[in-house]
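Summary of Year 1 activities. Much of the first year was spent building the evaluation harness for sequence design. The harness presents a backbone, in tokenized form, and records the residue chosen at every position. We chose the following record to illustrate the format because it has been used consistently in internal testing since the harness was completed.
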């Protein structure tokens, strides 16, 4: 009820309420250690995709662990009509680290569209899109995306509002732009 699983629950609630079927993994892939967490989540994603080939968007939810200059926990927010929300950051993995990721440009295209939709809905909700040399399992789906929902310095309520806004933006985008292949 207090971690990223709860944030995923909120996105699932929003999507399901609008008729978008959602599969939400509640496995803790980083327990008992962060080492190997991407290998654990990779196996889970592959299993979900094999059982549900209609899946066209895979969101990997995180919170940023950035620290302030004085060692405190960083938190970034935006004021919305519904209250204060955590800012979101979309992370796009590439093949620059040497691992095969032939479709990273397609993931980038989706990230740009989602970023634009989020900003259209709530100006200031997004930090800049972050490009990384790791692929973060995004090679498994042309709709793969890592989303940082705020940071360790944000409150649970700020993260939950950001999750609601993210879910709404996915719905808005799906109504006009997302096509599964």
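For this record, the design step produced the sequence shown next.
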């Amino acid at each position: 009820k207090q971690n990223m699983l709860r944030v995923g629950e909120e996105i699932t609630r929003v999507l399901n309420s609008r008729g978008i079927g959602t599969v939400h993994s509640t496995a803790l892939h980083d327990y008992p250690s962060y080492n190997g967490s991407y290998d654990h989540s990779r196996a889970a994603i592959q299993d979900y995709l094999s059982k549900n080939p209609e899946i066209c968007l895979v969101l990997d939810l995180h919170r940023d662990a950035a620290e302030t200059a004085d060692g405190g926990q960083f938190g970034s927010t935006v004021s919305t009509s519904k209250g204060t929300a955590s800012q979101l950051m979309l992370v796009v993995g590439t093949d620059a680290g040497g691992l095969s990721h032939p479709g990273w440009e397609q993931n980038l295209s989706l990230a740009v569209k989602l970023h634009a939709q989020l900003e259209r809905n709530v100006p200031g909700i997004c930090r800049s899109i972050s490009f990384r040399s790791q692929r973060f399992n995004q090679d498994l789906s042309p709709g793969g995306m890592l989303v940082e929902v705020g940071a360790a310095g944000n409150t649970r309520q700020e993260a939950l509002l950001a999750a609601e806004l993210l879910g709404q933006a996915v719905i808005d985008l799906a109504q006009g732009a997302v096509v599964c292949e």
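The mean pLDDT is 92. Quantitative recovery figures across the full test set are reported in Table 2.
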